[in-house]
Specification:
Strand content: 15-25%
Shape: globular
Low-confidence stretches: none
InterPro entries: Amino_oxidase, FAD/NAD-bd_sf, Zeta_carotene_desat/Oxidored
Bound molecules: flavin-adenine dinucleotide
Structural class: alpha/beta
CATH superfamily of the largest domain: FAD/NAD(P)-binding domain
Number of strands: 20
Helix content: 25-40%
Pfam families: Amino_oxidase
Domain Amine oxidase: 15-444
Number of domains: 3
GO molecular function: oxidoreductase activity
CATH class of the largest domain: Alpha Beta
Organism: Paenibacillus chitinolyticus
Oligomer: single chain
CATH topology of the largest domain: FAD/NAD(P)-binding domain
């Protein structure tokens, strides 16, 4: 018996939960989303931290994403009005002198894309570039033939097996692992590496990278919530779920930290992995279906975000700092945070080194490494925040893939969504949206067209 006015209760208002809610509402379901935080959006949110506007870290919208732009368009949000498309990215080496510009938008910036690939010889020599070819060809081949075998290798192991030269590993593959999902090539699954880039190969012409024109809650999540409310969804912030309610082996709702329970015919756990484990472990820890998820390891993420007296960089675009702790960084004062004269967001790598480090030491370490990249961060820094989360990501180290759970569970009334659940775009915004759609299919018991 379900006495609730809602068909489905979704726990978590990140992109996975919102995508699931949108699909179910489009199918006529009455949906209630509960969110622990005082704001919606999860890792794609912005908020004020003791007077400074922050986010989990800078996010880039990749031009070949499909599920996320599709969701936004159906919610009448135009991706182009929310984003500034970047035509190039930069790699800076820690000798203070060498920096190279690479084109990433073959249609919008064909000359830069072609010259970037064939020049920049101080960053990577022609022989080093050539050494990447067999690595890429073999990686894409194994991805299509046997992805689980690819997950046995780290990027560094796979690169060495296929003759990639050291400089190419450090200057090209290093930035593409540390700057994207935080870990160095030695710790980063070759499956995640090729799996994330493979969809871009047939859609090479669509390649470009979008930076957000404002905080992500403001420009993406709030309009998504408005579209959901228009479709009859209820969204309750500051409402953490504490546990699951079960009757006769069926999930019938959730208990709330503040007391009381909410009931619905279906519950979708759309939290980050660590919170999902906390909710699922007590009732299902002993069950076979839960074991792989229980074993799926997590990893931390750490960013430092700085307000500056003037811009650090001449353009708002992705910059990589191989050989330093700054995996990637982006000036944001012309796009995401234009209310301050200078604003930079930096993803720190490897995150385990920084997760417990006091903020002032993180700042010192980052300033020292920025110096090596030829950037006088210390002189310009006016304020900063270190944003750290110990376990919101599933670990992209080799061997994780086999533990990622499906969205459909064997428990009646229960489905899972979240970037850690199985879908082809790993821990990205696109992956989260795909997982939400699959969770909606699990709830409905059929595929969506
Ligand atoms: C620094 C950083 C940089 C990134 N860069 C990019 C990028 O450039 N491009 C890209 O595509 N992706 C990027 N990502 C990844 C992307 O943000 C995530 O993959 C995606 O947002 C995950 O969405 P989700 O809905 O699965 O989880 P989340 O966004 O984590 O949402 C989970 C929600 O559940 C809520 N919750 C948890 N427990 C409870 C509870 N008990 N009760 C109620 N609510 C609860 C949380 O508060 C949260 O709002 C980046 C992430 C980080 C941290």
């Amino acid at each position: 018996m379900n006495d609730s006015q809602f068909d489905t209760l979704i726990v978590g208002s990140g992109l996975a939960g919102l995508s699931c809610a949108f699909e179910l509402a489009e199918q006529g379901q009455r949906v209630h989303i509960i969110e622990a935080a005082p704001f919606a959006g999860g890792r794609t949110s912005n908020w004020s931290d003791a007077g400074m506007e922050v986010e989990s870290g800078f996010h880039k919208f990749i031009g070949f994403y499909e599920a996320l732009p599709n969701l936004l368009r159906r919610a009448r949000i135009k991706p182009n009005s929310m984003l500034t498309w970047e035509k190039t990215f930069e790699i800076r080496l820690p000798d203070g002198e060498t920096a190279g510009e690479f084109g990433i938008a073959p249609l919008k910036s064909p000359i830069k894309t072609i010259t970037g690939a064939f020049t920049n010889n101080d960053i990577i020599s022609p022989a080093d570039k050539a050494s990447l070819m067999p690595f890429v060809a073999e990686g894409l081949k194994l991805l299509s033939e046997n992805p689980m075998e690819l997950d046995a290798y780290s990027v560094a192991e796979f690169a060495r097996k296929h003759g990639v030269k050291d400089e190419a590993l450090r200057h090209v593959l290093g930035p593409l692992t540390s700057g994207v999902l935080f870990l160095p090539p030695e710790d980063y699954s070759a499956l995640v590496f090729f799996g994330l880039f493979a969809p871009g190969v047939p859609k090479f012409y669509k390649m470009q990278i979008g930076g957000f024109n404002g905080g992500m809650t403001d420009v993406m999540i709030t309009p998504l919530l408005a579209a959901l409310e228009k479709r009859g969804c209820r969204i309750s912030l500051n409402t953490p779920a504490e546990g699951l309610s079960l009757e006769d082996d069926r999930v019938t709702g959730v208990s709330l930290q503040e007391g009381g329970t909410l009931r619905a015919a279906n519950v979708v756990i759309a939290t980050e992995i660590s919170a999902a484990k906390r909710l699922l472990q007590p009732p299902f820890g002993g069950e076979a279906w839960y074991q792989p998820l229980g074993e799926l390891p997590t990893m931390p993420d750490v960013t430092i975000q700085l307000e500056l007296s003037e811009p650090l960089l001449p353009q708002d675009r992705v910059t990589f700092g191989p050989g330093t702790c700054i995996g990637s960084f982006s000036e944001q004062s012309r796009t995401t945070f234009p209310h301050v004269p200078g604003r930079v967001s930096m993803i720190l790598s490897p995150p385990d080194e920084f997760i417990d480090m006091p903020d002032d030491l993180v700042f010192e370490r980052v300033c020292a490494d920025a110096d090596k990249l030829g950037l006088d961060l210390r002189a310009k820094a006016k304020d900063y925040r270190v944003i750290r989360r110990p376990d919101h990501f599933y670990s992209v180290r080799p061997g994780s893939e086999k533990f990622r759970p499906e969205q459909r569970t064997p428990v009646p009334g229960l489905a899972l969504a979240g970037d850690y659940t199985r879908q082809p775009m790993f821990a990205t915004m696109e992956g989260a949206v795909l997982s939400g759609r699959k969770a909606a299919e699990a709830v409905l018991g059929r595929e969506l067209s």
